[in-house]
Amino acid sequence: MATDYDAPRKNEDEQSEEVEVKPKQDDEFTCMSCFLVHHRSQLADAKKMICRDCI
Ligand SMILES: [Zn+2]
């Protein structure tokens, strides 16, 4: 018996993923290194979005 593993893949777009939507404050940013939300005054690298702790 031949088993058909070649089933077509479903490409489901889950763009409307409504998990916990937290309104980000305008004077806050998320560090791309530690992924913590800091105040803008802690922003050390605006291009990389990295806080002072991670630079
Ligand atoms: Zn950081």
How does this model look, in words?
By secondary structure, the protein is an all-beta fold. The chain has a domain at 25-55. Helix content is 0%, strand content 20%. The chain is built from no helices and 4 strands. The chain has strands at 28-30, 37-39, 43-45, 50-51. A two-stranded antiparallel sheet has the order 1-2. Strands 3-4 form a two-stranded antiparallel ribbon. A hairpin with a 6-residue loop joins strand 1 and strand 2. The termini are far apart. The mean pLDDT is 82. The structure holds zinc ion. Residues 31, 33-34, 36, 50-51, 53-54 line the site of zinc ion (ZN). Zinc ion binds at residues 31, 33-34, 36, 50-51, 53-54.
Radius of gyration: 20 Å
Number of strands: 4
Structural class: mainly beta
Report the end-to-end length measured between terminal Cα atoms: 60 Å
Give helix and strand order, one letter per element, not per position.
Answer: EEEE
Give a quick precis of the structure.
0% of the residues lie in helices and 20% in strands. It has 55 residues and is mainly beta.
Descriptors:
two-stranded antiparallel ribbon, binds zinc ion, mainly beta, 4 strands, two-stranded antiparallel sheet, single chain, 55 residues
Sequence-ordered SSE layout with sheet pairings:
Blueprint: E1 28-30, E2 37-39, E3 43-45, E4 50-51
Antiparallel strand pairs: 1-2, 3-4
